[in-house]
Amino acid sequence: MMTPSTPEARPRIDFDSLPDCHHMCLIYDNEAERRELVTQYLAAGLRRGDYVRYFADTTPAEDVHAWLAETGCQTRDTEAFGVVAARDAYCPSGRFVPQDVLANMAARYTRVKQAGYSGSRVTGEMSWALRGLPGSERLLEYEIGINAIDEPFPHGGMCQYDARQWDGATLFRVLQVHPFMIAHGQVVRNPFYLRPEEYLGAGRPG
To answer: Which of 7, 63, 173, 198 is 20 to 30 A from 39 (CA-CA)?
Structure first.
């Protein structure tokens, strides 16, 4: 595992300038780089007054709090930030049902807006879908559904995919359902992205 030895060695992305509504993927193969990017993304959301959540599959909650503490963000004893087990976030009933998760997202936006937050921001470790949970084969259906959400309230999500755990064909489909991606140290509009109607119209699996 590579650990950046100096601040200059760390990837720096201007997450403060993201579109108010965004859905992007982080496909990575380096834990130190993932940690740095995820920390920057979360901290940027907290700075702008968002309601921020981290959906963790394997990362301990204490680690995420420690990462953010290094940026000066105090995340304990605040409703603005929380770490939730990915299994509970995506499969609260024990089965992954995309429509239910999407409905929960819409309800969260309404609740967060009423609470006075500037927006909603989430990042999740998608390796939970490799655990054999019922319904997890419908993951891409969920990812496509996010792109169909018509909600002006600022909301964003970054889906973390470990390239060492997912096969190449699946990762390419993942790219096709995320409008934004992180590449060469920048957030860019994804040239592989297909709108929901294009993706489904091409006969690709949902």
So the answer is: 173
Q: Where are the beta strands (DSSP E) in 44-154?
A: 51-56, 81-85, 120-125
Closest CA to 177 of 158, 161, 199, 162: 199
pLDDT in tens, 43-101: 999 999 999 999 999 999 999 999 999 999 999 889 999 999 999 999 999 999 999 99
For 110-119, the pLDDT digits (tens) are 999 999 999 9
Backbone phi, psi, residue 184, to 5°: 55, 40
Comparing CA positions, the residue from 184, 180, 194 lying closest to residue 18 is 180
Of residues 131, 130, 139, 133, the one with CA closest to residue 102: 139
Nearest C-alpha neighbor of 140 from the set 113, 109, 171, 108:
171
